[in-house]
Design a protein that fits this description.
alpha/beta, binds ligand Z5A, 52% helix, Rossmann fold, 228 residues
Amino acid sequence: MSPRIPRPQRSVPLPTHPRFITLEGGEGAGKTTVLNALRDALLAGDEEVVSTREPGGTPLAELIRGLLLNPHADRARHEAPSAETELLLMFAARAQHVRETILPALERGAWVLSDRFTDSSYAYQGGGRGLDAGFIAELERRVVGLQPSLTLLLDVGVAQGRERTRGRDLYPDRIEAERDEFFERVRAAYLSRADAEPRRFRVIDATQTVERVSEEAVHQLRDWQAGA
Ligand code: Z5A
């Protein structure tokens, strides 16, 4: 008897939450500054705003972040995480983040602004490391089950973004230490996701000054709120 081959799952769109917004982009794109500008814009409406980040956003997820990014953790044991290990740790942190931070905040009516979310896994582990997008989609469906309704992608060339962060840290973290080619693939993966989901993504030209990028992000937020 031939073995039963599981049929591929049809991809079902995930539910979005109207108060869940994410920021994405490569290194030095300016997400931290923009997150603060968006936060101020939302706070002006006198509503609760929870700013969070990935990997991280809960005590346990922050511990996983340390495992993922510490440039020395793997060297000490002469063992770098495989691409699959990296992906699964990202999703382990995300599973905790969604359940402990994001969903409780959304359920009590707060806005949630996250510096990175699942799109980062598609870009870095999918585009950068070459892992199968179908596998990532399956993890997203089973482990996360939720998408932001607005994603601002701050787009800047790899050389310019890396130049901005050069010399910032004594040691670059494990992913920052990757070569430019890796980050070119990350950027291409982001842009292709934005192309495929124009309703959710707004791409912002992050080559402009920090002030202009923040203004543009707040403008996009207002425009999206007006049309939502
Ligand atoms: N990662 C992953 O692989 N898979 C996943 O699923 C997730 C994450 C969730 C997280 O580290 C790493 O994890 C990240 C992806 C990976 N790896 N990388 N590389 P992080 O959060 O610490 O790394 P980051 O998000 O790349 O941080 P960043 O480099 O600091 O980027 P940023 O937050 O967008 O930039 P910033 O802190 O706002 O600005 C950086 C510097 O640039 C700062 O000195 C600013 O003054 C300057 N800057 C920013 N914007 C401008 C403009 N417009 N002009 C001039 N200078 C600017």
